[in-house]
Specification:
The longest helix has 19 residues. The strands form 8 sheets. Strands 7, 8, 9, 10, 13, 14, 16, 17, 21 and 22 form a 10-stranded antiparallel sheet that branches. Helix content is about 20%, strand content about 30%. It is built from 13 helices and 38 strands. The chain is α+β, with helices and mostly antiparallel strands.
Length: about 725
Amino acid sequence: MKKVFITLLACASLMYANAANNQTIRISTDNTDLVLQVAENGRLYQTYLGEKLRHEQDLKNFRWDVHAGSDGSVTKRGWEVYAGSGNEDYYEPALGITHNDGNPSTMLYYVSSSSREVEGGTETVINLRDNQYPVDVTLHYMAYPRENVIKTWSEIKHQEKMPVTLFSYASTMLYFKSSNYYLTEFSSDWAKEAQMSSQQLQFGKKVIETKLGSRAAMHTHPFFEVGLDQPVNEHQGNVLMGTLGWTGNFRFTFEVDNVGNLRVIPAINPYASNYELKPNEVFITPEFIFTLSYDGTAQGSRNLHEWARNYSLKDGKGSRLTLLNNWENTGFDFNQEILSELMKEAKHLGVDMFLLDDGWFGNKYPRKDDHAGLGDWEVTHDKLPGGIPALVKAAKDAGVKFGIWIEPEMVNPKSALFEKHPDWAISLPNRETYYYRNQLVLDLSNPKVQDYVYGIVENIMKENPEVAFFKWDCNSPITNIYSAYLKDKQGQLYIDHVRGVYNVMKRVKENYPHVPMMLCSGGGARCDYEALKYFTEFWCSDNTDPIERIYIQWGFSQFFPAKAMDAHVTSWNKATSVKFRTDVASMCKLGFDIGLKELTTDELTYCQTAVANWKQLQNVIMDGDQYRLVSPYEGNHMALNYVSKDMSKAVLFAYDIHPRFQEKLITVKLQGLDPDKQYKVKEINLMPSTDSNLDANGKVYSGDYLMKVGLDVFGFSPIQSHVIELIAQ
């Protein structure tokens, strides 16, 4: 104990020696500065977060208390970068620890910092330490200059004799001093994903959180926007756009204090998750990714899109496969012959792949509906006697690739797996079991379960190395919250389960790095950048009604590039035309889930043409810059355009949703073009024997004209769409 005490004293001396140097740490992108400073008390504070400062010497003018709030009856406060519980702050902390002696307070002092160049930017590492307890926190900041994105997370460890209890563990804390703050959040439910709503933040706390465990983002998504001084705006104003890379329970805390300053705290939700941290074990928080845009959300979105394609999304720079799925066409009712015919339809349609959905597995309990079979990942012999090899061969003979649906983290009680390993399912003892969708969640905190789940993919790939795609579903939140494996460590379940999911996903990516995978969760209930390290794309919603999809895709596009977002043409809302449905899906990664036999000859010809056009424009839509032009939330129309990096090509999507009688129609002014280039305007995706009714069709305009004057593309008829290609001459 004496040695520990002497060490702590030596560390404290080092801390204050560093503090005396008024250490300043600058974390920068090309457009933003985050400035941190060590105060005279030896602790680390945020002194600035905003537009990049032009002159290095200006950093000397900062003092840790420049933005401090003052409460004369209590204390003077600074913006501590990683505030611990029990200190003089009195507001929401980043870190909460109960130490071996029962003390619930933590105060962190600066020890050291360093920076190094990494792919795409600079990583800054800051070491903090409690001066009374052997607790260390390491803060990580990765700045991507060109994309104007900063990624940050923390690592917590200790050397106390016994485990300590973590009861709060944020990824970071950010502070703002503005006249007003306006939050845009993204609420959700099945078939209602990414619904945007806004409110002004007033004194006190606004919390966005989820407690669902696995299908965690079913009711709220892990991203947000905060307008500084004014409501969030697409084209102008300062806005913080942030998202947490965590596929489990998360919590965003927005707290306006008594002097009108805002702190933003992104974190794992500590609900039912008091975490027992062993000595020398490292607790790593999720990555929080954010951008500060000074030109509205449009620029912020482009920052995040570019960052994701370059550094976060699996195969972010690669192409994507168009596909035909069988689900809306057959449901569970299919056999080998029916699927073989659909594969031929996929080839006839012109897509790259046929995707087999749910219903292909289980023998003791065949998967005839959603009541049985989950967990038994063997082909149903009487339905598919040739197994997956016969399906792969049939697809190859038809001239398309073959993909397959799995839901590996789930189990039906009516399954051979559950009969053999009931303890592998998360389920409460001594209680009546509650089933969501007739299933339970497998306990991925258990390494044996992790091996089993990984083995589902491995067994398919070993037998069928030509399988080209996986759709990985997750249809249930965690219910009956108890792990037989964790025993008396139930506070670890929500966290260790997600870590187990990542362990499996990492193994799949390491062993099958070139196999594209779709992330699905009863629709869009999994949509975070940690999971997307292992998936090429995600399924935005089971709702494929094109009118609803316009809103859903608008919401998700705030944070995700088009190539990460799957959109399929289906029979939802047959009151809309096949053209309208296809044009909406073409704004994202295009797929079909429809029987070709239900299409007329003209509709089929149109779809074939639209697939060919999408493939021709894939580089523009998937890798170009996106500009949201007209919001469906603000009127009866919607428009956006994509522009290739060299500005030689662009594509405009425009939709009349429900225009009012003889309402005033605005021209659509494009963005992102080269003002000095001449662009030929051509309407594509036209029905056979139909000519464009746009005056601009076939004409040439300068980029300057198209951006300042624009095109007349909106009309008075409901549910109409236009897709316009622009090619530099």
